[in-house]
Amino acid sequence: MNGKKRCEKGTFSPDGMRAEILNPFVHKLELDNAYDKIRTAIFTVILLPFRVIVICYLIVTAWFLACVGLYGLSEDDLRKKPMTGWRRSLKPLICFIGKMSYLAGGMAISIRGRQASRREAPILVVAPHSSFLDSCIVYATRMSSVIVRKESMDNYVGKLINYTQPVYVWRDDPNSRQNTIKEIIERATSKEDWPQVLIFPEGTCTNRSCLITFKPGGFYPGVPVQPVTIRYPNAKDTVTWTWEGPGALKLLWLTLTQVHSSCEIEFLPVYYPNEEEKRNPKLFARNVRDVMAKALGVPVLDYTYDDCRLIAKAKQLGIPGGASIREVAELRAQLKLDVTNYEVDLIETGLQGSPRWLTLEQFALKMDVLITVPCSRLYKIFVQQPINMMYFPDYLLATLFILYQHEPLSLLIAYGFKIFDGSGMGRLDLTSFEELAARTLNLGPEDAHNLFRGADVEKKEYITYDEFVAYGMKKPELSFVFTRDGSQKVKVQ
After folding, report:
1. How far apart are CA 319 and CA 399, in angstroms?
2. For the segment 204-213, what is each residue's pLDDT rounded down to a tens digit?
3. What pLDDT shows up at residue 154?
4. Do 283 and 313 share a domain, yes or no?
5. C-alpha distance from residue 208 to each of 142, 147, 205, 293 (Å)
6. Using 50, 70 and 90 to split pLDDT, how confident is the model at 61?
7. Looking at the predicted structure, is the pLDDT value of residue 327 above 60?
8. Within its chain, how far is the Cα of 26 from the centroid?
9. 394 shares a domain with 299
10. Are 222 and 339 part of one and the same domain?
11. pLDDT tens across 334-347, in order?
12. SS3 category, 266
């Protein structure tokens, strides 16, 4: 893929060309032929157990050495000054064992370029971040200090992470972001011989199709940084861990049953910020991202961690097209639909008698837009097989979710009553309510049925929105529907 493309509205890379919209949070991985399935089954039996045993042995050994090195040190000690003496001399051995654990799993780590010293670049900026296996960078950089949530340290590998003398993020601290930036600045500008600070500025995992927005936290110190890229040039991508795709255990299983995997780490030249970049961390972050994107040959995309949260919330609630919700927003913007919120007007004027299943031509006519590339892409997100047509209510719900993402979920459900009300009388029967509940509350038929019966006090075989609210307000498990954070699944008894 050519990295010099314009990928997002308002986002450019060097040659200013328009690029296809990407979804960096989706990764599809299936064993789609008999050969792969048979080979994986065989290696699961004869190769996987051996690799797991060796890896566990190596990890336990590294953990034991970390425990020895940390003996007598408190967390305050680790934050006050860098390790010295024999404790520091254990780091190369732990790094060697860590690399061997990857090799035992069939993954060879190759390194290109030269890691700068701390004096040259106090901060290492690593991207793209696409897998839990990216932790190999810690061993490749001689245990640089990572940024880590404090609550994630209460596990088996916490000792190994502590040995990097990490910068802690305290989720329960309302000033966590400011305190983290403050500590990064102190580390980066300290005259003491701290390890380099290692940062994944994207803040979440992507599928490596592009580089998303870099968080500016690591750029506030205004010091030189060294960009570091990670590639996995394998025939089958069994490492990418995104919001939409295989889980960690499946990826680990498929990776360990490959004959051979590889990871390439490249240290790029140190990036020295100019005076403007020192004053503007966001500009500094954008410019470093551009350099890394060019080296990787991928575009840049102004997606953020907030977009990930929005996608996760959409998927959790069962919103149609949830994994592509950010792309839906961008395509609507390209079609200028975000200017008028045309869909809301359609719902308010009434959908009774309108067909629910639409062809591309009917969709374009309905939305009063031309059949262009953005229109076709938007249509395809909501096409259902085997009839190869769009279910229009799905598109409307996804659009309303975007428009009212910061409002209580009850507002979306209120519009849903209008969308699925075929009678025009402001009420839904059981079948229509089940459709709505599946797409906004992620409820199965049984739970939706129970919710409907609870709200239908008079046994009329239909309910209105007001009746739904009256019932829902009395149920603690439905309280999230009426707050601004509608990201919780519901189980109705």
Report:
1. 10
2. 899 999 999 9
3. 61
4. no
5. 24, 21, 8, 10
6. very high
7. yes
8. 9
9. no
10. no
11. 999 988 888 998 88
12. strand
Considering 303, 327, 355, which residue would you say is the last residue of a domain? 303
* Averaged pLDDT score across all residues of the chain: 88
Backbone dihedral angles phi then psi of residue 226, each to the nearest 5 degrees: -110, 115
φ and ψ of 108, to 5 deg: -90, 130
- Residue 67 confidence (pLDDT): 93
Q: Is pLDDT of 304 > 90?
A: no
Same domain, 124 and 236: yes
Rg (CA), the chain: 26
Residue by residue, DSSP assigns 429-487 as: -HHHHHHHHHHHT---HHHHHHHHHHH-TT--S-EEHHHHHHHHTT-GGGGGGGSS---
Instruction: Give me the helix-helix angle, 342-349 and 409-419, nearest 10°.
Output: 50
Q: Which of 69, 230, 66 is nearest to 153 (CA)?
A: 66
For strands 261-267 and 107-112, give the pairing: parallel
The CA-to-CA distance between both ends of the chain, in Å, stands at 50
Question: Are residues 493 and 476 in contact, defined by beta-carbon separation less than 8 angstroms?
Answer: no
End residue of a domain, out of 259, 283, 303: 303
Confirm whether 127 is domain-assigned: yes
Are 161 and 218 contained in the same domain? Answer: yes
pLDDT grade for 155, boundaries at 50, 70 and 90:
low
Domain of residue 243, residue span: 34-303
Phi-psi map region of 363: left, alpha, beta (phi>0 left; psi -120 to 50 alpha): alpha
